[in-house]
Each structure stands twice: as C-alpha cells, then as structure tokens.
Amino acid sequence: MNQHESPTILIVEDDDGIQAIVDEALTEAGYHAAIAPSGEEAVTLLQGNKDKYKGLVTDISLRGRIDGWEVARHAREIHPEFPVVYISAASGADWPSKGVPNSILLQKPFAPAQLVTAISQLLNTGTATT
Amino acid sequence: MNQHESPTILIVEDDDGIQAIVDEALTEAGYHAAIAPSGEEAVTLLQGNKDKYKGLVTDISLRGRIDGWEVARHAREIHPEFPVVYISAASGADWPSKGVPNSILLQKPFAPAQLVTAISQLLNTGTATT
Amino acid sequence: MNQHESPTILIVEDDDGIQAIVDEALTEAGYHAAIAPSGEEAVTLLQGNKDKYKGLVTDISLRGRIDGWEVARHAREIHPEFPVVYISAASGADWPSKGVPNSILLQKPFAPAQLVTAISQLLNTGTATT
Amino acid sequence: MNQHESPTILIVEDDDGIQAIVDEALTEAGYHAAIAPSGEEAVTLLQGNKDKYKGLVTDISLRGRIDGWEVARHAREIHPEFPVVYISAASGADWPSKGVPNSILLQKPFAPAQLVTAISQLLNTGTATT
Amino acid sequence: MNQHESPTILIVEDDDGIQAIVDEALTEAGYHAAIAPSGEEAVTLLQGNKDKYKGLVTDISLRGRIDGWEVARHAREIHPEFPVVYISAASGADWPSKGVPNSILLQKPFAPAQLVTAISQLLNTGTATT
Amino acid sequence: MNQHESPTILIVEDDDGIQAIVDEALTEAGYHAAIAPSGEEAVTLLQGNKDKYKGLVTDISLRGRIDGWEVARHAREIHPEFPVVYISAASGADWPSKGVPNSILLQKPFAPAQLVTAISQLLNTGTATT
C-alpha cells in the first residue's frame, strides 16, 4: 500500500497554516492529501475525477464566491455518501442549517487527531453501508 | 394533557390528501398539528411564534417559490436542533446534498407509523441533549 | 400474546393525571403497565422481582426522599442494560449530569407516541445487544 | 394512500397466533402485510417480486429447512439495505453471530409497538441514506 | 496551531504511570493536557476556568473523597455536553448506573489509540451539535 | 502499560504485505498484534485462549476452507460482543448479507488510521456496554 494507493482526501483551504496542519495530519495517518486553494478549484477537481477522491475536508470561509457549504453540496451531488468534514473558525452555529447530513464540523483550534478520527469514522461508515 | 398541551408540529403540505393523512397520524399519536399550505406561510408562522412549534414535517415539492429544503433551513436558523421530517414523492436522491443534518426523509408511499416514529425519535433526541 | 404475556413496564409517578396518560399509552401499545406511586415503592418492587420488569418510566420529581434519578440508578444496578425513560416538568437541564447512560428524557408536555417510541427503542436495542 | 399504496412488509411465520399479532400490528400501523408460512415460500416471493417488499419480519424457527437467519441473508443479497426484524422465542444469543448488520431482534413476548417501532426505524434509516 | 492553541483536556489521575501514558497519548494526538492529581483539584480547576477545558479524562478510583463519577457530574453541571472518558481498573460494571450520558469507559489495560479515539469522537459530536 | 499488557488483537491475513501494514498500524497505536495466517489457525487460537483476544481484524479472502466471514461468526459465538473488522479487496457488496452485526468493513486500499479508528471505536463501545 504505497502512498499513491491510499485513499485520497481533498482539502479545500486557502490559509497556508491550516493547510499545512491538515495536510500533515492526513498524510501521517496514511491518507493521500490533495489540496485545492479555492472552492472553484475544488468543484472542478471533484467533477473532473469522479472516482479519485474519497472524502472532503473543507474550510467554510474561502476567498472566492463558492464557500465550503457549497463545495460539500457539489460533492454530495456527485457521490451521495461522500464523507464531509467542515473546518470553522467560528462557533459552528450555521452547521445545523447549512451543513449536509452525516457530516462533521470541527471548530478551530482542533487537535489533528480530531480531524483524523472524523474523516476515518465517516469513511468507515461509508464502506460499510455501500 | 389536553390537546392544546401537546407538542405542536408544523405540517407544510399543499396536497390535500397527504395533508389529511399526516394530520390524522400526528393527531392520533397525541401531537397537535398545525398546517401551512405553502412554504411562505410556514416561514411566517415559524418566525412569528418562535417557541410554539416543536417540530416540522414538510413536503419537498411546494407550489410557491420556497420549497421544503428551504423551509427546513429557516426552521434550523431559528432553532438549531429543530426536528425535521421531509416527505418526498421521488427517490430522495437530493437528501444527501440538500437536507439538513439529523433529519429524516420519508418517500411516498409511507405508513403513518413511519412518520410518527420519525418525528418522535427526533423529538426525544432533542429533549435529551438540550 | 395476552396482556399478562406482554413486557411489563414499571411506571413511577405520583401525579394521577400523568399516571393515567402514561398507563393508557403503554397499555394501548401492547405493554403491561405496573404503577408505583413513590420512589421507595419502585425500589422495593424492582428488588423483589428482579426478572419481572423490562423497563422503567419514572417522573424525576417524586414526593418521597427517593427521586427519579435515584430510582433509575437502582434499576441499573440490578440490570445494567435496563431501559430508562425520565419524565420531567422542567427543561431537562439536569439530565446530562444526573441521568444514566443510554436513557431518554421526555419533557412535559409530551405526546403519548414519544413515550411509546422511547421505551420501544430502548427495549429493542437491549434485546439486540444482550 | 390506500392500503395497496402502503409499503408491503413480508412476514415469515408458521405460528398462527404470532402471525395474527404481527399482521394486525403492522396493518394498524399503516403497512400492508404479506404472509409467507415458510422460509422456502419467503425466498420465492422475495426473488419473484424484487421491488414489491420493503421490509422483512421473520421468525427464526421455521418448520422447513430454511430458517429465519437464512431468509434474511437472501433478502439482503437482493437488496443490501433491506430492513430486517427477527422474532425469537429464545434469548437472542445467536443474533451476534448469525444476524445480519443493522437488523433488530425481538424476543417473545414483545409488545406490538416494539415491532412497529423496529420496522419503522429501519425503513426510515433506509430511505434517508439511499 | 501551537500547543497553547490546541484544545485542553483535563486528566484526573493519581497513578503516575497511567498519568504519563495518558498525557503522552493526548499530547502526541495534538491536544494540550492539564493534570489534576485529585478529584478535589479537578473540581477547583473546572469551576475556576469554565471555558478553558474542552474535555475530561478521569480515573474512577481517586485517593481523595471525590471519585471520578463525581468529577464528571461536576463537569456536566458546568457544561452539559462536556466530553467525559472514564478509566477503570475493574470491569466497568458500575458505568450503567453511575456514568453520565454520552460518556465512554475504558478498562485497563487499554491502547493509547482507544483513549485518543474516545475523546476525539466525543469532541467531534459536541462541536457538531452545539 | 508494557506491550504485553495492551489489548491483543488477532489479525487473520495470508498476504504478507497487508499483514505487515496491519501489524504495524495496530502496534503503533498501542495494541498487541497476534497473527494467524489462516482461518483454521484463527479459530484454533480463539477457542484455545477465550480471554486472550479482545478484537479481530480479518481478511475476507483466505487460502483455506474457512473464510473471514466464518472466522467472525466463530469469534462471536465465543464472545457475543467481540469487535470485528473485515478487510476486503472487493466492493464490500457481501457485507450486508454475510457480515455480523456491529462490525466494520474496510475496502482496500485503506489508510492505517481507518483501521485503528475502526477497532478502537468497536472496543470502546464494547467496554462501555458490558
């Protein structure tokens, strides 16, 4: 199981510091991490490679016109059971109205283990019920 | 526990037949049922009586400009843990991308017991964790 | 399956009105309902008939020295997976610190279907994992 | 929603008394109940009408060569998320090794509401995640 | 995300060996670990810094008058959704009657990954539903 | 907590590459890993040391006559709540009909963190409800 054989998780993050933390946490956990610096690029990648990505970690606040809530909706239109983890600087108050079902929201600051546990739990549930 | 002391569930439905079935099922189960025939009226009722309604049962397809997905988002903005049950004529394929977290979707035809179990489960979880 | 063959649920309630509602809801749902008007009597019944009762529905506020939180702890000492449903007039704010694990709290006013769904869910989980 | 438009649940039961109780409980709850008196007939029905049945309630002990554990496995081969409720006279000790994932086991005697809650919960989960 | 920006978990443990294992496991997972050697000190810390701690890992047996069950109840009175992980040398038989809802009990010996998964799961659920 | 004091997980795997990955992931997570290269040996080990093993990670395809589905059933006959994680090269389509309740299936390729999260979650649930 070389790295290119690991499940690939798409990270959507325009803050270099958080991007590095998320990338390192997922890579150490044995995932392959792909990075999109904007929501627009994330949607392009998801639509262009429908079977490449196995999960999504997206910041809610992104610089372009497409925020993290919208990226997640696009991902779920492609794969209805796509694992989704949101990262939020704020309190997460919008998650109950804007999040997709069966997703997890992490508030900053979070421990890397929270992220790894979140994406792993969602992936495990996904494989089990498909 | 007279009827006016029961939890009030808001039903958003413009099909008279389904409206009657949902109303009867909830009333027999001991709920008080309030009916809004359009998404616009539902939003007005939810915003005007923030503590009156304890749960939402909404059809996804509604005649006005506001569909069931949007009614649910409004309800969750007012109460983050508001119980939400969607009713859909179709396969429910949009639920993973358009539904709110911790909601339940019923496809027609459904048994009245499915509706009663769905709203009761969501209400019970809500009371337990608030 | 005559009534004496149905699972017996112990109701602990000193308010006659609530007692009647709970009794009727459980009986109509096919349970056998036994009533204890105080926490002390409930504890005596549970200890004297360790295999008779299959679940507990208890008000939190009781007139004697033993409240509903304590009745539930006694029940769980006898049977670690005993289904427990609390009934509370207040907001349920004490449940996270005083409730037992895997229990459900209903706030008044509640619909009878909430009670029936709550005890049935807990019983079903119990039989499934024992 | 006439009865023929309700979801049809297949009951596999060779004891007339239990058959009548299950049939009545499901019918009152708004389901359409179809009855197979043996595992062999149940498998024939499931394979011959792949979209007709929406859930299974099966006794574990059946007179023929096919027991309830095997009927459930056949149902899941046809529909991977098929709701399955087992009925057992004994303690359910075999469920952890012989049951299928995401199923519920009811031990006799059970209240009709337990059966209705069990099948409704499983159906609701199924519609939500498909 | 420097260490002082990570979520702080309060560890209540008077055994130096277990204390070191828990401290190291949480720190490697990216948490900041604060240690209280007694239940009394834990309660003082929790009450004095209501927003500092994000989760609790407590041994059940502690040398003072306040045991782990009581520390957890204090924590939940301050924050109703506070993540709670108990560590027990014994079989965990008291957890169903003395534990708080939505908590996890680890029996010694446990793998560090069990602890990290437990606290991460509870934190993730907490952020998602607040 | 020396390694021999950690929970021992039985790995059933005849592919040396996967065996090494699983062994390393569990050992780094703080588990003690025991390896059986065939289903027959796994069953012998489980029956000969009923309290030694705390969880099972088994490939579905094994060279002998006993496949991973059967190993898991044997383990659950010995301990009804035994944690079970299956590893599958294929799509997992057989899990809903051949898996045991409360198990997790991982499809290759998987990240080591998925395996660690899966077994830890199942162990934590087990200790909590026993």
Notes on the structure:
6 copies of one chain form a homohexamer. The mean pLDDT of chain A is 92. The two termini of chain A are 23 Å apart. Chain A is globular. Chain A has a 5-stranded parallel β-sheet, sandwiched between helices. The first copy, chain A, is of the alpha/beta class and 130 residues long. Chains in contact: A-B, A-D, A-E, A-F, B-C, B-D, B-E, C-D, C-E, C-F, D-F, E-F.
Write the layout of secondary structure elements.
6 copies of one chain form a homohexamer.
Chain A: E1 8-12, H1 16-28, E2 32-36, H2 39-48, E3 53-59, H3 68-78, E4 84-88, H4 95-98, E5 104-107, H5 112-129
Parallel strand pairs in A: 1-2, 1-3, 3-4, 4-5
Biggest chain-to-chain interface with counts:
A-E, 24 and 17 residues
Radius of gyration of chain A: 13 Å
Helix and strand pattern of chain A:
EHEHEHEHEH
Sketch the major β-sheet of chain A: 5 strands, parallel
- Overall outline of chain A: globular
> What integer is the average pLDDT of chain A?
92
Quaternary status of these chains? Answer: homohexamer
Strand tally of chain A is: 5
Work out the helix count of chain A: 5
How much strand content do the residues of chain A show?
A: 15-25%
Q: What is the helix content of chain A?
A: 40-55%
Class by SSE composition of chain A: alpha/beta
Strand order of the largest sheet of chain A: 2-1-3-4-5
Cα(first) to Cα(last) distance of chain A is 23 Å
What are the low-pLDDT stretches of chain A, counting only 5+ consecutive residues below 50? Answer: none
